[in-house]
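Deliverable D2.4 — example input (structure tokens):
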């Protein structure tokens, strides 16, 4: 398994279950892109260790019993890169709704740490679970 594929596996295992150990995986200058997050009012990009840890800490506080499952991790030709398709589920504490999601995550490693993540998810599923509007969508626009 490539370095990036191993890091991606650890990322999925430790992000929520061992948050302190997960923090050791990320580079100081990590960039985490979330292209669909603005649809639910979240930033499209997190730059730097502090911003990433703040966002993950918010997520951990908002969702209980979160787990990833059925992960398919594929190393790229470049050992510094890997991609995963993974399902997840958890309970949104503020709404009592189950959050079910399928993610596609691209990871780039540098010096044995996660330097870049690009995560795709369905913002509609997140909006429904969080009971939040999708930015730019109103009843009139449907």
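Example output (designed residues):
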């Amino acid at each position: 398994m490539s370095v990036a594929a191993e890091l991606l596996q650890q990322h999925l295992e430790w992000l929520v279950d061992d948050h302190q150990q997960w923090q050791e995986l990320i580079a100081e200058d990590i960039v985490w892109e979330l292209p669909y997050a603005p649809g639910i009012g979240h930033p499209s990009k997190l730059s730097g260790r502090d911003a990433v840890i703040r966002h993950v800490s918010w997520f951990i506080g908002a969702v209980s019993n979160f787990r990833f499952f059925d992960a398919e991790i594929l190393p790229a030709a470049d050992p510094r890169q890997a991609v995963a398709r993974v399902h997840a589920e958890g309970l949104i504490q503020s709404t009592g709704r189950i959050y079910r999601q399928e993610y596609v995550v691209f990871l780039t490693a540098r010096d044995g740490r996660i330097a870049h993540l690009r995560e795709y998810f369905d913002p509609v599923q997140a909006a429904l679970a969080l009971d939040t509007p999708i930015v730019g969508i109103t009843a009139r626009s449907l």
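Residues 3-136 form a domain with the Nuclear Transport Factor 2; Chain: A, fold (CATH 3.10.450.50).
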